[in-house]
Amino acid sequence: RNYVCSFDMCGRKFKRYEHLKRHVRTHTGERPYICPVEGCAKGFSRSDNLHQHMRIH
């Protein structure tokens, strides 16, 4: 079963629903993963990107 992005006629297909949800953030700009370091507050759409970012602190 494929999950298809219907956002702005995108049409990208994903085999896993979680991957579609992650992809939709590229359209919405949602960044639910926020750096917890005081004064930073940088946001990320993926948790792995936040973990990579944490290495600079």
UniProtKB/TrEMBL annotation:
Keywords: Metal-binding, Repeat, Zinc, Zinc-finger. The keyword Nucleus does not apply. Coiled coil: none annotated. One of its GO terms (molecular function) is RNA polymerase II cis-regulatory region sequence-specific DNA binding. One of its GO terms (cellular component) is PcG protein complex. It holds the Pfam family zf-C2H2. Residues 3-32, 33-57 form the C2H2-type domain. InterPro entries: Znf_C2H2_sf, Znf_C2H2_type. It comes from the Eukaryota. The keyword Zinc-finger applies. SMART domains: ZnF_C2H2 (SM00355). This is C2H2-type domain-containing protein.
